[in-house]
Every structure is written in structure tokens, then in C-alpha cells.
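Dear support,

I submitted the protein below through the web form. The confirmation email said the job was done, but the results page showed an empty box. After a refresh the structure appeared. I'm attaching both so you can tell me whether what I see now is the final result or a partial one.
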Amino acid sequence: MFWRILRPTKSGAMTSLILQMTILPCEPKKAISDFVKEDMEIDKKAREKVASLKRDVHEGTREWDILYKKYYEEEKGRHGN
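What the results page shows now:
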């Protein structure tokens, strides 16, 4: 049996984490905590990359969303996700 946790990211995409129920009782909390910390770090780096562009790209615009998603996926790949 598995647990699946879905968490929306700021871009609107869903990120999931699947945990086996055979994990020891204290481990799910740590696994979830680690997952959320890593996701927040990826989000922060993607936002920093968009903000560092020479041209001014405003959050909420189509261009910002496309760039954020691109950079988010790149960072996610670097973390092995």
C-alpha cells in the first residue's frame, strides 16, 4: 500500500511524493519534510533565475510562467527528480 501526496507549486503544477506504508512511523514525517524543503529550494532558485534576467519579466505574465517552468524543471533535474 502507498501514500501519494500532491502539492501544488507556485506555477500551478502538481508535484507528487509517493511513500510506502511500510516505512517506519517516524520516517514519513521526515520524508515529507525533506521533499517540501527540496521543492522550496528548487522554487527559490527558479525564481532567482527569472529575476536575474536583464530584461524585466513580471511575475504573472505568460513569459514569466514559461521561464519559471523551464528553470524549475532544470533545477529539478539537477536534484535528481
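Response: this is the final, complete result; the empty box was a page-load delay. The first strand starts at residue 2 and ends at 8.
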